[in-house]
Amino acid sequence: MKHLLEAELIYGRLLDVSEPHLVERYNKALEAFGLPRTNLARFSIDMTGFSPEIADELGDRDYLDPNRVNRRFIILTPDQVELPVVHTSFSNTAALMHEFFNANARAINAVTIRDALYGEIEDSVSVVHDIDDLLAINEVRFRVLSAEDVLGKAAELRTLVDRLKTVPNAWADDAMLNRMVELSKKTGDIRQNALVPDQLVFRHEAFWANHFGGVYVFLDGRQTTVICDPSVPGFRRSRPWQVSYIALDDYPRIFEFLASTKRLELPRASWVEASGLLQHRADMAILNLVNKADPRADLAKADRIWIQTWMHRNAALIAEDGIYPFLQEAIRIISATGEIRIKDVAPWPRFLLVRAAPAHPDQWLVNRLISQLTPFDFVSRFVFDKQGFYESYEKLSERFREFVVETLTRTYLQNKPAFRQRLFGIREEKGNA
């Protein structure tokens, strides 16, 4: 992971925490979770408060995600809303955190002046044993506490203020008045500062969970569709009257489901030619073949002429693999006719020709699934499925790792929003990075 760390392709864009009072507040949150205090004077955190340095110190990547449900969080500053989520068991954790930040901005801004917020994203299950446990998660509730108990003090002060207003002669209670003064020094003027979060319950929409090797859950009204390995506990057993189950290698059914629910953008010239996505995938297919044929090839020198020469010398290998010639023919047909009859294409290659419908709320999740089904495209895999990318990266040769890092740095990292918009039509981030 050295190259990824140096290029900030893993644990990039995190917030530096080094001010003593913030470190102390973080430690109080850790203690509240029953965890040891950190001995680090400086560390970095993501949107949820997860720190890779503290995870290393504790020897536990899941220190804020102990059962991989009911995710914990620590908020030191409102600025965390701009950060990515770099370690999570659910693909929609970032979206839920964004909703929480946006719905409770006033309270978060006020509390974090004096305190840190911490707590859990609670749902209806505590441990996931099978698919039914995942499907039981319909909504989540943020259970919020504060390290210095500013929230508790604000609630107490509010009670005393109400008593002062409603109980005759309460103003003569010196002990109560002194207590109010003492509390106000900690909370400030609660008439001006909204210290208590307004919204704590949020819907748990479509998601990917990393349990059992990865489970996709899509929602369409009362109908739920699960896509995963058929060996996952509960597959085709949980609520069969309400849940459709599709095996991860059942390409015809996966495509039919995504297309029939308008989650896919089918191959038409209106977007294919402007995006360059099919040519991008064709190039990725060739680079994948180069790595397979010669893992020690120096791709740093692989300009267009070098690639063309390699392709001429390895025409039989390219033809046997089939992806590059298939995509080149698809580009030619789309340029000539404006579209491709998807029914004339074999099941798996269909995923090479499509992207998630940009207007659909599940666009990130669908692009994640497509990138998992087309793993040779390491750029798309990094954009949408970082967990899968990191696992694949570890299996690459050292030379190809260097090339992967250089490619991502030169392309995606230069302007991530513009890159996502051009290739995938994505105009708005929803808790993704």
From TrEMBL:
Protein name: Uncharacterized protein
Organism: Rhizobium subbaraonis
Pfam families, sorted: DUF6638 (PF20343)
